[in-house]
């Protein structure tokens, strides 16, 4: 890995391949793999990640919004792309770019069938989402009949898949609840398939579902966080490698005397003599204010340097009193050893939030 000369997010494709292969090793050979690349592939680089995974034969991709799907198509993704949360205002673009909508209530189902019919579509692939306990998006079990009737009335659409989402797949204290969700989904899928007269793809598991509920893999699984190197448990993390390393450098070192303050609002006041380093990364880059005032930390020459004072828009100051280092030295904010999961925990949040927050201002560097 090259030494950083500015703030940079390095993306390790070899680690991505290992994570992909590890997750695949948990599946039956014919279970399809859908790679979730929403939110810039969890803050990394959606086009690079999707292209690389397409090369490794990932079967499907998923994004949250239509705009994200268009970006992937323009970058050369030809595999099917599921849009998890399409907005009807963008249906024309969805059709133009051959993106596949998740439809989750009567309103959006009717809107899409109406739109696809007006556009003279036949057998346009749609995905029907069922709510089995998360209570976020999805049809209820009792709506199966009316969906099937509606779909059978038109030639415009074809139900490519039926799916649902687990609410607590990473939490084994909620195993009974998860098993209940799985059972409900099975019942829904059976009823739906019988009535519609063909077999859609069935899928339910996210990363922790893949790892904890092999009985719920069905025909396809949907993995996001695992690909990026986090398994939501100490045990599973051992088999996965974080693909992203956020690096920066030391811009300036200060000696702070007793009684001096550091940063805006004089939030830190020194009770002795200390050394600080100022780094070119701040809340506009994704290191939010909750990481300030001694909560968050970075690594310099393998040692932990806590953030002191308030996080600024473009900078943080860290305490380097006991660390041998110089202006220009490389700093690791998070990576394979000092992980994003640990840094996120320091501000009472989760890896998902920290990694998806790294703003587009930060340069991405792909390491192959
Ligand atoms: C984001 C998302 C996933 C991926 O979940 P991970 O925990 O990151 O593997 C899967 N399915 C749906 C519906 C999602 O919204």
TrEMBL record:
**Active site annotated at which positions?**
38 (proton acceptor), 264 (proton acceptor)
Q: Which cofactor does it need?
A: pyridoxal 5'-phosphate
Where do the Alanine racemase C-terminal domain residues begin and end?
243-367
GO BP: any one term: D-alanine biosynthetic process
The pathway this protein participates in, as annotated, is:
Amino-acid biosynthesis; D-alanine biosynthesis; D-alanine from L-alanine: step 1/1
Annotated InterPro entries: Ala_racemase, Ala_racemase/Decarboxylase_C, Ala_racemase_C, Ala_racemase_N, PLP-binding_barrel
Q: Tell me one GO molecular function of this protein.
A: alanine racemase activity
Give the residue range of the signal peptide. none
Gene Ontology cellular-component terms for this entry are:
cytosol
Residues annotated for substrate binding in this entry = 136, 313
HAMAP family reported for this sequence:
Ala_racemase (MF_01201)
Q: What is this protein called?
A: Alanine racemase
The source organism is: Algibacter amylolyticus
Gene for this chain: alr
